[in-house]
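Readers of this paper often ask what the protein records in our data store actually look like. Such a record has a labelled line for the sequence and another for the backbone structure tokens. The tokens are whole numbers drawn from a learned vocabulary of local backbone shapes. We quote a single record here, exactly as it is kept in our systems:
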Amino acid sequence: MTQASEPQEIHKRKRDADDAGSQNNSDRIPQPPPPQSGNSILINYLTKSSTGRLELIPGDADTFSDVLGLLNSYEGVLNRHESLAANLGAKLTGPRLLRAMEGVFEGPIIASPASPYHHQHAPISWLDIVTFARSNSDKFVLTTNADGERSCQFFLNGSQVQILEDDWRLIVNGTLDRFSIASNAPLEEDETAELATLDIVEKRLQVLIKKADEVAKRARH
């Protein structure tokens, strides 16, 4: 009986390591993505449509220096309470009237700091002087110096300002009333242009923000 059983033992195939790991090896082979179910979107990690490499969106400030510089320029205009339309090159009526008003004056504006510790940030303009004269008529008067020369001297924005008598008369006799720019109210046509400019800028910014949000949202889902 012992000899009859030995051939049967010989013909039995021994299991090796390959047989034991055959199932695990097949699991390591990349498989196509299974069919989609529900609303979930499965990511295809195996193939891509383009042969080139997609550039990673940079996160450093140097790469976005142009865009950041442009945004800072816009922010600077808003912080200074200036017109976006004017800074973008719009031909507004107010600046044209201002240039026309400045053209009627003949003498220079002589300005010197009232204190050595005062630093003048912006030069005194004729519009500044006209505005000062309207609200400070008691200080906007003629004086005569030791040489007999008459002029108007006053303090404005931390500086001592002096203008000639002829220019003083242009202001006090109402000659500049024909220029609506001399009033404090902005011109209606300039306000209309500013609102139209703001609308254009806002829409373009919304397009950029929306596109960036779409890319980020698709990457998360």
Observations:
- The chain has a mean pLDDT of 77.
